[in-house]
Amino acid sequence: MALLPQILPLQFGKLDTKTDSRFLVPGGLVALRNIRYDSFPKLLKRWGTATFYAAAAGRMLAHFKNQLFLGTGAEAYSIAATGSLDKGMLEAVTLLAQPVVRNAYYQQSPDVAVHPNGITVYTYESNEAGSLVSRYSVFDTATQQPIAVNVLISATGVRPKPLCIGNWVAIVYVDTSTSHVRYLAIPVASPTSPTSPADLATDSQASPVFDATVIGGLQGLVYVAYANAGGSIAVCGLSAGLAVAPPTVLFNAVPTVLSIWQDAALNLWLCYYASGNLTAAVFTSALSQITAPFTVAAAPGTVRNITGIAPGAVSTIYYEVSAAATYNNFIRTATSTLAGTVTGVADLVRSVGLASKAFYYLGRVHVLAAFQTTLQPTYFLLSNGKVVGKLAPGNGGGLTQRLSLLPETPSVSTGVYALAYLYADQLTSVAGNVFSQAGVNAATVDFTQNTYSTELSDNLHVSGGIVSMYDGAAVCEHGFNVYPEPLTFTASGSGSFTGSYQACAVYEWMDNYGNIHQSSPSPVVTATASSAAQFNFSVPMLRLTSKVTKVSVVFYRTIANQPVFYRVSSISTPTLNDPTTDTASTTDITADTSITGNAQLVFNPDNSAAEVPPLAAPALSFITRYRTRLVGIPSENPYQWIYSKAMVPGGVPMEWNDQQFYQAIPQGSGPLTCAMEMDEKLILFTATRIMMVAGDGPAPNGANGDYGTAPQHIPADVGCANPRSLVLTPMGIIFQSQKGFYLLDRGVSLHYIGGDVEKYNGQNVTSAQLLPNTRRVLFTMSSGLTLAFDYIFERWSEWTGVYGADATIFNGLWTFVTPSGQVKQETPGIFVDDGVPVLIGLTTGWASFAGVSGYQRVWRLIIRGDYRSPHILQISIAVDDRPSPVQVETVNTANLFANTPGDTLLGDTESPGDGAFPPEEWQVKLLQQKCSSLQVSIQESQLGPSYGEGLSLSAISFLAGVIGGLHRVPASRSV
Question: Which of 120, 484, 529, 909 has its CA 20 to 30 A from that of 507?
Fold first, then answer.
């Protein structure tokens, strides 16, 4: 009986990378490149893209009003087709923190070393029973799990400093009972089995002054420079094999502070403070003198700490100068050549002291600084003197307790650095005074992670080490890094002021859109006047600011014996902030009757109904908006989310207060990763859980909050593992979980939509955008691929040639930036990517018309589509589950209507008819007709110099018949 041929027409099906390609439904595809579904089920080519700006790098892209805003990871730019404008420093900094040690004792002098073979060692002094002892803890670097916790180094040891050498982490310290410089070594392979302490030197002076560094990497030497008992500076060493290099006296000097570091040529730089001078010298790694001691700064003031860094031939030196008030300490800088030529001696930043050694990244010098007042002890990460991050706001350990021993800032990996700092969180009261017990925290400074932005109240708000804002003119810190503290307020002279008066001060600044930003007020000070003539105000200047336009220092006071605070600072001649000086002072002689019509302080500390005062947000790992509020996830405590006050139209900026406007989540849910508004709900995500909150939030005074005590859990076994993947569509929120792409619909039910692209689960989404006027969502991926999803038909496509580090919608078009800094935009109706043609392609699953392992005969197939412009098609045929094609045919559409005898691919022999896009049809006669399964691949190419849309694809039809029985198996595989 003759085999009966059958026509089997198939529409091109959906992409499916999850299902075994041998079991796909007929027409199913295992690859589908550069397709859009705007005329479903027809497969149309995606539009091309064009570059209109090239920057040094691309990390963040956002739109703000009519501007395109680009973050390179180091700087911010406003982009237009004609060029760009630099809008200021905007470093992509993510700060992550975790505790190292907390107990009943007070810790100080934290330090850290990160060994590349997988362990991190923290050292610190612990005040136990009134005396200091040295201890250490060891953690697994990758998991941050503790290996050894709070281990005693020495009961009489002080100033422990860990350094990596060979397969060890050597902890250097001074034994106060013997004045010996000693070390204890922790083996990387067995970190719970340290060596016994041993001597490096036996002649330290009684009050230890030393520093240590590693010259030449892991196989080099640990060098310890110290002040010896003979009135000299000496250096001893420790090799990778723990061989001790005995002390070498460098020269006579009795320093109170010293620091050492290496330069790019492995020379040893030594800088010290003695006899009122800051002095430096340079030696080879063999301790031969290169440059004799030279003066960096004569009589610079009392120097507390020194650090230096030399990424090239020039060293940058930072030194902290003390002041009578801790908040008036300041950091100075200088540069020196190898020959000892010093230039650029200047103040770097005032009001802070050094809290770490310097490290170099993004072409800038970074260092941790400590700000210390009674209410605001905080650590600030400085980049070339500007604040780019903060840790422990209001809970920091303050200025270093020890001089001349700054914590190391080791590299964990490229762009990631470790810090150790103090966190004061246990409050006790002794004789009416409040004290804090400080423990040690570990921080990771990560320059490789993404930042997030959201627009609200005429500002673009950006997450990071600090919350930054862009007002269309420049980037600066959101709010104020600190508020005025302390305030001095006195009455003097002879006049008409009589009674009890109160006063406070705020910092004030107007942004580019006229919003007036005020800091939290200073603590209130009371002055009693008895026929006084004037009031005298004095408060610290705001020295930690990146605001380009001037900040004002504004003073408020009450009238006699009344609680309302009135503005007494002049509007026309304000007291302008000057970051280069320490104090702002003014006098007030205005009669009480003349100030009662002035503006009142809305944050009145004596009025319980007054607004909650603004406090700058902590470092945020994520920021978004919910209704009329900003929402953020604190980097140091991702088990809570904070929210701003509600937006008020008309010159009022967004204001935070994380001490009152926050809500915690259950610890068992894991840390929060991101959040997104959907309808009336705020959806909160951890990596494994989903929660939601609804409500308007509290009033500006903190009353009538309706967020509840905890978020409501949504039944789910996944969460959002990648905040960059969040996108709101008409169907709901789509996000990337650890198990693939999911949709949380408007009814907060969860649907798995990522099965068809499951093979990409190991790649991270770098941006997600819903395209206007389409049903399409685009996900740029870390591999350089872009996934396009049609949410109506739930169909995916793989887009090649579009590699986005981040994306936004600008002027109604999809706009993205590549990691190398090219800003590109979709070009409707154009089908090239910067002159490179966009080419479509697809591969079907294995077509088995006789069933799996059946036997079939396929005489020919026809591919049908629409002709759009000249193109070339390569059609490949594979059989019997073997991916290598057995037949490859190439057709140039210049011969679309030619019919040469003997052709295996036949086009129409007559005109395709009228219309803009005539039908295009190709018939392929199979050379190997009998098979078990058949796979077809179609790949377009084009010849320049001009490129067009090529074609669209609609269907594929087979002329096939089923041969009875199983397909033939070779004897060698028959048993």
Answer: 529
